[in-house]
């Protein structure tokens, strides 16, 4: 395995993903972990990420210098390079020109890290740094340069203590040959073999789950989203009927959602699936509630209550399956500080302690795209694998103001049309989320010769990589036009449609 030490770069996850794309397992640790912990992982190579700090600042993050003398090959990227320089007796200084963007890299030492790169001696790379290497540490040699950086890459000439450093970012798409460079590092320099595939992952996860669970019973809160679906399918492959899945229909789902879960998991995968219809208590609890946070809290609490009551009917339950992904794990140990609560998320996080359950989190090591490949491997249908995210509180947070049966019906109608049009325009996968929001106001319109005074629906569609930041989607006007026409014509009670053109930040994806 390869360890990536995180110094706070926005690209750290990308480094790990690129290495995994080379079918080599890689894992991220905060740079603050002690040397002994790093060594306990027995890494075949270590990558030091970039980061926003300057090595000469007082509180700059660092590593124990002894890390460089363990015989483990090291690749320092950007801040990683500056740190190697600083700790090994070289000199880093603020650069006169901040270098940001594409640059032509002249390769002075072909082969090694640069094997097969830059056919005519040069290749395009992505630079993003304010500091630069003034003087290399003893034992290092420059292996590439750009017009602005005489030392854009360097290496230590010591066969048993190999260190390679890059001023540019090989992990980003703007460095077209960066993936090759990272492959050269992990295969040629670290000696890793490409054995980490989703098939091998599934096999070993199945073994792990069997060993962990023994003869106990396991439950899972299935939502129909990619993560809980893949986690459930994987666990089911491992322990079959020892797993029971519970799907809570809170009455806030979209058209056909419950049927699809039923069809996929009960009819096709033969999972022990219990579907609870809790529409009535959820709608009763939400009556006249307009405050978004109150809605979220009520729904979260009621969900836990429903789930707990149902699981009490089962005997010998010791474990709960959760679809926690690797980015959540990194987030909770990340090098950055905690952030403010913007919205109370509805999730099953509180369940294990409350019900005294141990956790099975078979996706803890995976990124979203890897989970999709795994889902395919496990035979899940595309509709599940490629499903856009849908929030736990469901349509309740897309009906601004109070939630009623009538308003749910209107929103469902509009939502179905947005979904159909996005799919038939071939945009479903490239758009992170597209949905309808029902606004708590009415406006005047004219239909036939009659005055109307009806609801307004907003369409929200965003592109995003992880939901943390998002841009409003530039959907072709014809598609928007078709949605608007169909919603106004087909959904009773709506006479106006608007399109949300705000990005996140400062807006959020959901309206509540
Ligand atoms: P916001 O609105 O905060 O949403 O920009 C970011 C992403 O999170 C989803 N979301 C939720 N997911 N439980 C969830 O499982 C929730 O309570 C919840 N609230 C928002 C949202 O759909 C978007 O993908």
UniProtKB/TrEMBL annotation:
<feature type="domain" description="GMPS ATP-PPase">
    <location>
        <begin position="196"/>
        <end position="387"/>
    </location>
</feature>
<dbReference type="InterPro" id="IPR022955">
    <property type="entry name" value="GMP_synthase"/>
</dbReference>
<dbReference type="InterPro" id="IPR014729">
    <property type="entry name" value="Rossmann-like_a/b/a_fold"/>
</dbReference>
<comment type="function">
    <text>Catalyzes the synthesis of GMP from XMP.</text>
</comment>
<dbReference type="InterPro" id="IPR004739">
    <property type="entry name" value="GMP_synth_GATase"/>
</dbReference>
<keyword id="KW-0315">Glutamine amidotransferase</keyword>
<feature type="active site">
    <location>
        <position position="171"/>
    </location>
</feature>
<dbReference type="GO" id="GO:0003921">
    <property type="term" value="F:GMP synthase activity"/>
</dbReference>
<protein>
    <recommendedName>
        <fullName>GMP synthase [glutamine-hydrolyzing]</fullName>
        <ecNumber>6.3.5.2</ecNumber>
    </recommendedName>
</protein>
<feature type="active site">
    <location>
        <position position="169"/>
    </location>
</feature>
<keyword id="KW-0067">ATP-binding</keyword>
<dbReference type="GO" id="GO:0005524">
    <property type="term" value="F:ATP binding"/>
</dbReference>
<feature type="active site" description="Nucleophile">
    <location>
        <position position="78"/>
    </location>
</feature>
<keyword id="KW-0547">Nucleotide-binding</keyword>
<keyword id="KW-0658">Purine biosynthesis</keyword>
<feature type="binding site">
    <location>
        <begin position="223"/>
        <end position="229"/>
    </location>
    <ligand>
        <name>ATP</name>
    </ligand>
</feature>
<comment type="subunit">
    <text>Homodimer.</text>
</comment>
<keyword id="KW-0436">Ligase</keyword>
<dbReference type="GO" id="GO:0008483">
    <property type="term" value="F:transaminase activity"/>
</dbReference>
<dbReference type="InterPro" id="IPR029062">
    <property type="entry name" value="Class_I_gatase-like"/>
</dbReference>
<dbReference type="InterPro" id="IPR025777">
    <property type="entry name" value="GMPS_ATP_PPase_dom"/>
</dbReference>
<dbReference type="InterPro" id="IPR017926">
    <property type="entry name" value="GATASE"/>
</dbReference>
<keyword id="KW-0332">GMP biosynthesis</keyword>
<comment type="pathway">
    <text>Purine metabolism; GMP biosynthesis; GMP from XMP (L-Gln route): step 1/1.</text>
</comment>
<dbReference type="InterPro" id="IPR022310">
    <property type="entry name" value="NAD/GMP_synthase"/>
</dbReference>
<dbReference type="InterPro" id="IPR001674">
    <property type="entry name" value="GMP_synth_C"/>
</dbReference>
<dbReference type="Pfam" id="PF00117">
    <property type="entry name" value="GATase"/>
</dbReference>
<dbReference type="Pfam" id="PF02540">
    <property type="entry name" value="NAD_synthase"/>
</dbReference>
<keyword id="KW-0808">Transferase</keyword>
<keyword id="KW-0032">Aminotransferase</keyword>
<dbReference type="Pfam" id="PF00958">
    <property type="entry name" value="GMP_synt_C"/>
</dbReference>
<dbReference type="GO" id="GO:0005829">
    <property type="term" value="C:cytosol"/>
</dbReference>
């Amino acid at each position: 395995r390869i360890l990536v030490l995180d110094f706070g770069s926005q690209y750290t996850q990308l480094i790990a993903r690129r290495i995994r794309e080379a079918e080599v397992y890689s894992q991220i640790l905060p740079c603050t972990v002690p040397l002994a912990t790093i060594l306990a992982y027995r890494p075949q190579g270590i990558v030091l990420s970039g980061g926003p700090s300057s090595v000469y600042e007082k509180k700059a993050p660092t590593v124990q210098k002894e890390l460089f003398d363990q015989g483990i090959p090291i690749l320092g990227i950007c801040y990683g390079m500056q740190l190697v320089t600083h700790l090994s007796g070289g000199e880093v200084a603020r650069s006169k020109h901040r270098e940001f963007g594409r640059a032509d890299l002249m390769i002075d030492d072909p082969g090694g890290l640069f094997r097969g790169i830059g056919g005519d001696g040069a290749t395009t790379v992505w630079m993003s740094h304010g500091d630069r290497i003034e003087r290399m540490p003893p034992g290092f040699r420059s292996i590439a340069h750009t017009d602005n950086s005489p030392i854009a890459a360097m290496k230590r000439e010591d066969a048993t203590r190999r260190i390679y450093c890059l001023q540019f970012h090989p992990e980003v798409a703007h460095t077209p040959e960066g993936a090759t460079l990272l492959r050269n590092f992990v295969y040629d320099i670290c000696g890793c073999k490409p054995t980490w595939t989703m098939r091998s992952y599934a096999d070993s996860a199945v073994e792990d789950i069997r060993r962990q669970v023994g003869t106990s019973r396991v439950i899972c809160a299935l939502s129909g989203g990619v993560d809980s679906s893949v986690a459930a399918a994987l666990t089911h492959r491992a322990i079959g009927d020892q797993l029971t899945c519970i799907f809570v229909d809170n009455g806030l789902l979209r058209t056909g959602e419950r049927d699809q879960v039923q069809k996929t998991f009960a009819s096709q995968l033969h999972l022990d699936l219990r579907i609870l219809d809790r529409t009535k208590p959820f709608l009763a609890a939400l009556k006249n509630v307009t405050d978004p946070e109150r809605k979220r809290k009520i729904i979260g609490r009621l969900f836990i209550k429903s789930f707990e009551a149902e699981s009490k009917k089962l005997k010998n339950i010791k474990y709960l399956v959760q679809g926690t992904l690797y980015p959540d794990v990194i987030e909770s140990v990340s090098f950055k500080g905690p952030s403010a609560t913007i919205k109370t998320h509805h999730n099953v996080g509180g369940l294990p302690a409350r019900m005294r359950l141990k956790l099975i989190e078979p996706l803890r090591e995976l990124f979203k795209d890897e989970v999709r490949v795994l889902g395919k491997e496990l035979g899940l249908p595309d509709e599940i694998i490629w499903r856009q995210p849908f929030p736990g509180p469901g349509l309740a947070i897309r009906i601004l103001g109070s939630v009623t049966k009538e308003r749910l019906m209107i929103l469902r109608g509009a939502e179905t049309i947005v979904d159909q049009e996005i799919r038939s325009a071939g945009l479903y996968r490239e758009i992170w989320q597209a949905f309808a929001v029902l606004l708590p106001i009415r406006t005047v319109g004219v239909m036939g010769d009659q005055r109307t005074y009806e609801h307004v629906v907003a369409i929200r569609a965003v592109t995003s990589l992880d939901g943390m930041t998002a841009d409003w989607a530039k959907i072709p006007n014809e598609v928007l036009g078709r949605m608007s026409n169909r919603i106004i014509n087909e959904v009773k009670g709506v006479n106006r449609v608007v399109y949300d053109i705000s990005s996140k930040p400062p807006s959020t994806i959901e309206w509540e």
